[in-house]
Amino acid sequence: MTAHHDPIPSPTLRIVPIHSLVEHEYNDIQRTLPLAKRLEAEGLLKNPPIVAQLEGEGRYVVLDGANRTTALAQLHYEHCLVQVVEYEPPQVTLSTWHHLVTGIDLESFTQEIAGVNDIDLHLSDLLRARAELAQRELIAYIIRSDNKVLAVSSHHRRIHDKNTVLNAMVDTYKEKGGLHRAVADNMEEAHRLFPNVTALVIFPNYEASEVMILARDGELLPTGLTRHLIQGRVLRVNYPLSELKSNESLETKNAKLQEWMQKKNVTKEVRLYAEATYLFDE
Q1: How far is the C-alpha of 202 from the C-alpha of 182, rounded, in Å?
Q2: Which of 58, 120, 163, 269 could form a Cys-Cys staple with 264, CB 3.0–4.6 A?
Q3: What is the phi/psi pair of residue 156, to 5°?
């Protein structure tokens, strides 16, 4: 029997007001200034940020590309080109990055986290920690470089309150050492890649609705946590920033964008790569 797969939807590109874009997690402010300088020098927006529209509102949650939108805002752009996606499979799959922390004294790292208000830190084992995190009995668990496993819990039940505690925990280490993204709780692999590893901090898997409601309510998840896999992501658009900065109305800008896209399609400058691809120039 031949398997039938839903077709990847045609990309939806739209120019929207910068002020309508809502972030969902803390971005890396150290990257914003260099990015703003590069955008200004190149005069092009290579890859449009990925956004999902808040239901019943004229606002969009930035799923990927917050550093680009922040850089454009700092350059006083009023409008931004974005790719609007449906925030659900198959177009968007949400998973979680974990934090691989390096370069911090292990005991100081542990004591700082233990001192956060509304956090309970206790010894566990890896199997139990995995199960309790999956059931959301924990807000995170930590694998120290000495292989001790610490369960992180909080008495809070509301997602907003748990998110506040989670941010307070991440604040204890995010700027004191190295912070790298990891996809698994494998300390042996972490040691191989980073000999000065302090710990792995493992977070739960979130639902898209949780990301959206926190963003809608003006709350940010910790930096480098959500991992969005996008089917049909638009890359290498190279859209002129002069078109975004012009004094034309938003309606005119979007009409010109549609003409630009039609011309690209007619001249066969748009290609879809359905297979997994390695890019060496990112």
Answers
A1: 9
A2: 269
A3: -70, 150
Give the C-alpha separation, 52 to 62, whole Å.
Answer: 7
The Cα-based distances of 165 to 82, 100, 201, 211, 263 in angstroms read 32, 19, 14, 16, 50
218: left (phi over 0), alpha (psi -120 to 50) or beta: left
| Average per-residue pLDDT for the chain | 91
Q: Binning pLDDT at 50, 70 and 90, where does residue 279 land?
A: low
- Give the pLDDT band of residue 4 (cuts 50, 70, 90): very low
Closest CA to 31 of 179, 159, 172: 179
pTM of the model: 0.86
Q: Half-sphere exposure (CA, 13 Å, Cβ side) for 105?
A: 4
How far is Cα 82 from Cα 9, in angstroms, rounded to an integer? Answer: 16
CA 235/CA 246 separation, integer angstroms:
23
Helices (H) and strands (E) in the chain, counts: 9, 15
**Distance separating alpha carbons of residues 126 and 141, to the nearest angstrom:** 9
- What are the tokens at 220? 């940010």
Q: What is the DSSP letter of 18?
A: G
Please identify which residue in the block is written with the tokens 């001249």.
267
Nearest to 168 by CA among 224, 112, 227: 112
Neighbours of 96 (CB within 10 A): 16
* pLDDT > 90 in the chain, percent: 80
69-124 per-position pLDDT tens digit = 999 999 999 999 999 999 999 899 999 999 999 999 999 999 999 999 999 999 99
